[in-house]
Amino acid sequence: MEFSRSREGIFVNQRKYVLNETGLLGCKAVDTPIEVNLKLEATEPVNMVDRERYQRLVGRLIYLSHTHPDIAFAVSMRILRYLKGSPGKGLMFKKQGHLQVEVYTDADWAGSIVDRRSTSGYCTFVGGNLVTWRSKKQNVVARSSAEAEFRALAYGICEAIWLKRLLEDLKVTVSSNESLL
């Protein structure tokens, strides 16, 4: 991990971790981690790759996605070239003077072209700093966009409850004007 401290806060990044390990430090950079509006579908395997090298790369990318939330979904697509062109991206932890917990949720209704299931996503902030995030394909086909959004909201609320209990266990107090739920 690379850490950088400034007056603004602490910046965490792991860009060089994967690029050095894969020998792609000199690869061509891209602006986004995945093509905009890309719809994934199953295909037949074309060529076999070195299994061990691929497994090590995937493991490193999964580890890397913990401090690089913008690659969590696209962890195996265009990532190495994207990381090459994004040296200033990572997590910035700033002291905001409060511990307010915020949760944001979203869903893409029937977004999968294979089975029409939606993908839910949420991210949580404590004191204005991103601390958790997740996207997950929903288990059932939602009948409406409202149902898909409701399921995403349920995931986000579960995360907020977990954060509240974690903060309580850590004896971190949140003032009365800073509601967790």
Q: Tags for this entry?
A:
three-stranded antiparallel β-sheet; alpha+beta; 4 helices; single chain; 181 residues
Structure description:
The chain folds into two domains: 2-91, no CATH class; 96-169, no CATH class. It contains four helices and six strands, in the order E-E-H-H-H-E-E-E-E-H. The protein has helices at 15-22, 51-64, 79-84, 145-169, and strands spanning 2-5, 10-13, 91-93, 101-108, 119-126, 129-137. Helix 1 packs antiparallel against helix 2. With 181 residues, the chain is an alpha+beta fold.
**Uncertain stretches of 5 or more adjacent residues:** none
Spatial separation of the terminal alpha carbons? 33 Å
The dominant shape is: flat
Provide the helix percentage. 25-40%
Largest β sheet strand count, sense and barrel closure: 3 strands, antiparallel
Strand arrangement within the widest β-sheet reads: 1-2-3
SSE order and pairing:
Elements: E1 2-5, E2 10-13, H1 15-22, H2 51-64, H3 79-84, E3 91-93, E4 101-108, E5 119-126, E6 129-137, H4 145-169
Antiparallel strand pairs: 1-2, 2-3, 4-5, 5-6
Helix pairs in contact: 1-2
Short description:
With 181 residues, this protein is an alpha+beta fold.
